[in-house]
Amino acid sequence: MITRIEIDGFKSFENFALDLPPFLVLIGTNASGKSNLLDALTFVATAGTRGVDAAVSEVRGDARGLFRKRGDGSRVDRMRFALELLLPARGSSLSSRWRWEVCFAWAVPEGELEGITIETQRLVSLSSPGRVIPSMEHEWVVSGRRSALQYFPSSPKADWQVVSDIEHELAQVRSLHLEAGSLRGASELGGPRRMDSTGRNLPNYLRFLARETASENRPLGVVGEIKMHLVGLVREISDFEIVEDKRRRDVRLEFASPYDRGLDAEFASDGTLRMLAILAALHDDGTAVIEEPENGVFPERLRQLLGLARELVTGEDEAVTSGPGRPLQRQALFTSHSPVVLDAVPRENIAFLDMTTILEGAVASRVSRVRRLREDDGAVRGDGERWPRVTDSELDRFRAGVEEPV
């Protein structure tokens, strides 16, 4: 489980830090940095597990455009990230907390094309002060196709296990920017097991979730729970089936309503498909990062969906006391500009993003900042906070859909 992210030099972020509980909703107006934060988490997680080239392809913008643009039009030449992770107990071992620090640089190697390289990285134990796993010594102009975590040593065994567990956590980060057209399509029989960021391949994703979590007492596995939750959220739907058609070589979804059966996904509402994809992600292992769940969803149903997400995530205490084997950990991070969030989500599970101006020398630059909401007791500031907390008047404007003047 990812418990903190720090970003410097990526898109609109400068010395940015955010603690991540198991459930968090990021709110703010357009162009406040919400999507950039999702891109940052996707970029660093993908670079750690599949390499820089794959990371660039997973986010919006070209490689050079990922580096923060200053007010004078120039770009920084380094991006620094830090992720803090809670690794659950395995067998008789205790849970542990680790910090992965990595710096990416824009470089023009001699005789090669310019691009992003890994400059430095290390793993630091937060549970055992002084324990550090340095990255292997090598020439830092590295192939963008090789994952960053491959540069950590494969021995001793204890270090290898830490790197393996962190790689597993990062591989389970799923960023969703769902699109109705992608959600409606059938999957190729035998195709990829996961849906992509747009929701493409949803039928196969549900099919694999059913197979991987099935048991004698639960033949459908978590898909049975997904059905129950979807029916509770969408009154027009009474059931859905995952249909495998060997003649057509595809897997598709068919919905049933109180009035009809065999309703193909092509004719289902955008909101129904969107909620089904979100429910599938919330019932899977890892960190689900979901952009604007309110699109196509009635406000009351969004309120219920957010409440359900809070119930489905794994608390840090549960992660600490997990049993043998690799335990299931569920974490959910949403972005939204719906005022429903303020009524449906506790204040400690909300963070507010907006843009602010900083001075770099004599040049003014715009960067994203994150702030917590005031506590119910009126507390305004906590130790170590860089920015003042969000005021009630700011929340009133957000609730009314009114932007502050630039």
- The average pLDDT score comes to 87
Separation of termini? 37 Å
Shape: globular
Helicity, as a percent range:
25-40%
The proportion of residues in beta strands is: 25-35%
| CATH class type of the largest domain | Alpha Beta
Query: Unreliable runs, pLDDT <50, ≥5 residues?
Result: none
How would you describe this protein?
The chain has 406 residues and is α+β, with helices and mostly antiparallel strands. It folds into two domains: 285 residues, Rossmann fold (3-Layer(aba) Sandwich); 103 residues, no CATH class. Helices cover 28% and strands 28% of the residues. A six-stranded antiparallel β-sheet has the order 2-1-4-5-6-7. The protein has a six-stranded mixed β-sheet with strand order 8-13-14-3-15-16, with helices on both faces. Strand 4 and strand 5 form a beta hairpin. Helix 1 crosses helix 3 and helix 6 runs antiparallel to helix 7. The relative contact order is 0.15. This is AAA family ATPase. InterPro entries: ATPase_AAA_core, P-loop_NTPase. One of its GO terms (molecular function) is ATP hydrolysis activity. It holds the Pfam family AAA_21.
List descriptors.
406 residues, alpha+beta, Rossmann fold, 2 domains, 6-stranded antiparallel sheet, 6-stranded mixed sheet, globular
Write the layout of secondary structure elements.
Layout: E1 2-8, E2 16-19, E3 23-27, H1 34-49, H2 52-58, E4 78-87, E5 96-107, E6 115-125, E7 132-134, H3 157-171, E8 173-176, H4 180-184, E9 187-188, H5 202-213, H6 222-233, E10 239-245, E11 250-257, E12 260-264, H7 270-282, E13 286-291, H8 299-312, H9 316-320, E14 330-336, H10 340-344, E15 350-360, E16 363-372, H11 392-400
Parallel strand pairs: 3-14, 3-15, 8-13, 13-14
Antiparallel strand pairs: 1-2, 1-4, 4-5, 5-6, 6-7, 9-11, 10-11, 11-12, 15-16
InterPro entries: ATPase_AAA_core (IPR003959), P-loop_NTPase (IPR027417)
GO biological process, one term: SOS response
Keywords: DNA damage, SOS response
